[in-house]
From TrEMBL:
Protein name (database record): peptidyl-tRNA hydrolase
One Gene Ontology MF term: peptidyl-tRNA hydrolase activity
Gene: Ptrhd1
A Pfam family reported for this protein in Swiss-Prot or TrEMBL: PTH2
Reaction catalysis annotation: an N-acyl-L-alpha-aminoacyl-tRNA + H2O = an N-acyl-L-amino acid + a tRNA + H(+)
Length: 142
């Protein structure tokens, strides 16, 4: 077993000290986009919606870049796991953000400027079992 710094409770072990298969399945970054952005009347182009998800994911990773789970996730390179979910509209996204805040789940809300429109949120990378309960009602973005 590799020896390293003691991690706070709730943090994943560094991947260098875990079996690769179990480790890769453990950490995930959840991104939640508003589904109504692509539908009328908003009808955003697909690329613009994808950009919102990218902005939110990067903001969450940057804001929590010193967290051991974020660092371990980034070390995965091409094996990083990201799940993109859909909130039906801005109200649902705002409600989710409040729930995450109440449960001390680290996340970043992306607000597109200059429109000042909340479009997306992303959690920092987490072990799936720590956050899945707050996201299980949402569907995969299609």
């Amino acid at each position: 077993a590799a020896s390293g710094p003691h991690l706070p409770v709730g943090c994943a072990e560094p991947y260098s000290s875990m079996a690769a298969a179990g480790a890769a399945a453990s950490l995930v970054q959840y991104v939640v986009l508003r589904g109504d952005l692509v539908r009328a009347p908003l009808s955003w182009p697909l690329g613009a919606v994808v950009a919102q998800g990218c902005h939110a994911a990067l903001a969450a990773v940057h804001a929590h870049r010193q967290h051991p789970d974020t660092r371990a996730y980034l070390e995965l390179g091409g094996a990083m796991r990201t799940v993109v979910l859909e909130a039906p509209d801005e109200a649902a996204l705002t409600e989710l953000a409040e729930t995450l805040k109440q449960h001390s789940i680290d996340h970043e809300v992306w607000t597109e400027q200059p429109d000042n429109m909340t479009t997306c949120l992303a959690l920092r990378p987490y072990p799936k079992e720590q956050v899945h309960q707050h996201l299980k009602k949402l569907k995969l973005l299609k």
